[in-house]
Amino acid sequence: MKKILSLSLMALVLVLGACGNDEATNVDVKKEDTPKKEVKTEEKINVDIDVNEEITGGKATFTGTTNLPDDSELMITLSNENGYKGQTKVVVENGVFESETFSNKGVALDSGTYQVKVTMSVANTQPESIQEVIGDDSKNLEGELVEDGELGRTVTYSEDFEI
Question: Whole-prediction pTM value?
């Protein structure tokens, strides 16, 4: 009796398995069917950046304020005419950003004139949440710090100072 019951159960499983609907497992999703997310924010931002340098023992740290959206990714570059160049990436939090300390391989920077440059690269390199605010190709950004370039609109602030 157990043998007949086991064979009957196996036959039922095979019959039910053969009756399955293959269409449910073979779903083709075409790229053109997937809706493209469009940026709809139209609020313009007249970009403002202010940077302060703090020089301690010949090493430089930069803090800044901006009205760019929180989580915007900025690059701070420090350079001079003698070939020194250092960079660090910062993220805006509550309208503020702060750099790491710039030095010359751990020692004081040489005296002289330096340029600090703060840049925000093209929109498609920013986090999606930022792209939604600044618009496609940063079209919602305006002001004297906004530049149109070959790859798109960028933001650039620069200032010279002495060490």
Answer: 0.73
Task: For residue 98, give the nearest of 60, 146, 140 by alpha carbon.
Answer: 60
Neighbour-count burial for 108-120, b at 16+ CB within 10 Å, e otherwise:
ebeeeebebebbb
Q: How far apart are CA 158 and CA 156, in angstroms?
A: 7
Rounded mean pLDDT, 1-12: 42
Nearest to 66 by CA among 76, 58, 56: 76
In angstroms and rounded to an integer, the radius of gyration of the C-alpha atoms of the chain is 29
pLDDT at 41: 52
Per the structure block, which two tokens stand in for 43?
Answer: 């609020």
Terminal C-alpha separation, the chain: 96
